[in-house]
């Protein structure tokens, strides 16, 4: 089901990009948000003065119907997966992690459920693709960027977006746990993007330990 949901998301994105690209050739630019896309397409199809031929207009209309169908399929599968997550004890425990929602919990379970594939939490994080590259020269170790096209790209994207959401919420309140305190300090020191990747890395390592030991997540609270 997760593969089907990911396929629906991919095809939906590809259709939107194809439509945007075709319209760009006629000088018609649509903002990048999905909301702007959904609002603009019906107006463009109804505008008889924008230079689109009748055949192209019909083709674009059919592609837009496919886009809407894939969107509906994705939402349906999201709801089904969310229902299944609530029935799965391992996924329920993973939901306690910061920035982890139902889809991310499913991705973590699929990627990490067979913990014998990994020798450590770091190895699991490297497999997902949230461990920065290391470059060694002359006895010095330099930490580089994460590999953009390696690892579990979809899962990494969900982890990163979840981490960004956690950081955004943390801006408006005081830290309650040691991890939140660490995260706020890291944001101030290295910036939001670096902090989000670090949190994603820590999330994968913690999820690996939880699945391997069968434990629940209990964040360390700060003393009053």
Characterization of this structure:
This protein has helices at 2-24, 34-46, 54-87, 89-94, 102-112, 121-128, 153-170, 178-190, 192-213; strands at residues 134-137, 140-143. It has 224 residues and is mostly helical. It has a two-stranded antiparallel ribbon. Mean pLDDT is 88; it is low at 140-144.
Which key terms come to mind for this protein?
mainly alpha
Strand order of the largest sheet: 1-2
Largest sheet: 2 strands, antiparallel
Number of helices: 9
Strand proportion: under 5%
- Judged by helices, strands and strand pairing, the structural class is mainly alpha
Order of helices and strands: HHHHHHEEHHH
Number of strands: 2
Low-pLDDT windows of residues: 140-144
- The geometry reads as elongated
Please state the average pLDDT score: 88
Straight-line distance between termini:
44 Å
Q: What percentage of residues falls in helices of 4 or more residues?
A: 55-70%
C-alpha Rg, in Å? Answer: 21 Å
Reconstruct the topology from this structure.
Blueprint lengths: L1 H23 L9 H13 L7 H34 L1 H6 L7 H11 L8 H8 L5 E4 L2 E4 L9 H18 L7 H13 L1 H22 L11
Antiparallel strand pairs: 1-2
Helix pairs in contact: 1-3, 3-5, 5-7, 6-9, 7-9, 8-9
Question: Can you give me a brief rundown of this structure?
Answer:
The protein is mainly alpha-helical. The protein is 66% helix and 4% strand. The protein contains 9 helices and 2 strands; from the N terminus they run ααααααββααα.
